[in-house]
Amino acid sequence: MMTDLLLILAIFLIAAFFWQLRQMAENSRLFAEREAAKQNVQLIAVAMSSARPSLGGNTGFCWKANFILEFSTDGIDQHRANFTMLHNRVLSVDWPVFPEPEWEQAPTNRGKIGSCSLRR
Q1: In Å, how far are 15, 38, 68, 120 from 73, measured between CA atoms?
Q2: What pLDDT does 27 receive?
Q3: Please, which residues have CB within 8 angstroms of residue 78's CB and are 6 or more apart in sequence?
Q4: Shortest CA distance to 36 belongs to which of 72, 88, 77, 85?
Q5: Could you give the CA distance from residue 70 to residue 47 in angstroms, rounded to a whole number?
Q6: 64's torsion region: left (phi>0), alpha (psi -120 to 50) or beta?
Q7: How many of the other CB atoms lie within 10 Å of CB of 31?
Q8: Three-class DSSP labels, the chain
Q9: Contacts of residue 80, Cβ cutoff 8 Å, sequence gap at least 6
Q10: What is the pLDDT of residue 99?
Q11: Mean pLDDT of the 6-19 span
């Protein structure tokens, strides 16, 4: 009877840990999409490189995971950024030095110098 209870508890804990890791993976994908849009780069992939149990966060026991964000600035080259999450919170982001993407929709100068509106 006691072994059955311990077995059920162990299965429940494994499922809870798996659920926490899946939740972190989904939140990391959302974070990566926001950061790629903010940096004006093309997001290629997001992958978890390592995860380990940690104490902290809101629940006391959670996961600390490192993620790799692969992106491209021109569709040809590939760069990698690293970020660390504790539970669902991003702790740090390490961006590599990469060339700024070319912006074909750059604003053009329209109007006269020193005036904000057209005067007639």
Answers
A1: 39, 13, 16, 44
A2: 93
A3: 44, 70, 71, 72
A4: 72
A5: 8
A6: beta
A7: 19
A8: CHHHHHHHHHHHHHHHHHHHHHHHHHHHHHHHHHHHHHHCCEEEEEEEEEEEEEEECCCEEEEEEEEEEEEECCCCCCEEEEEEEECCEEEEEECCCCCCCCCCCCCCCCCCCCCCCCCC
A9: 68, 69, 70, 71, 96
A10: 72
A11: 90
pLDDT of residue 98: 76
The residue written with tokens 């780069």 in the block is: 41
pLDDT (tens digit per residue) in 54-108: 876 566 778 899 999 999 888 788 899 999 998 888 999 998 887 776 655 444 4
Amino acid at 1: M
**Is residue 110 over pLDDT 70?**
no
Question: Rounded to whole angstroms, how far apart are CA atoms 115 and 120?
Answer: 12
Q: Which residues contact 94 (CB under 8 A, 6 or more apart)?
A: 81, 82, 83
Which amino acid, one-letter code, is at 26? E
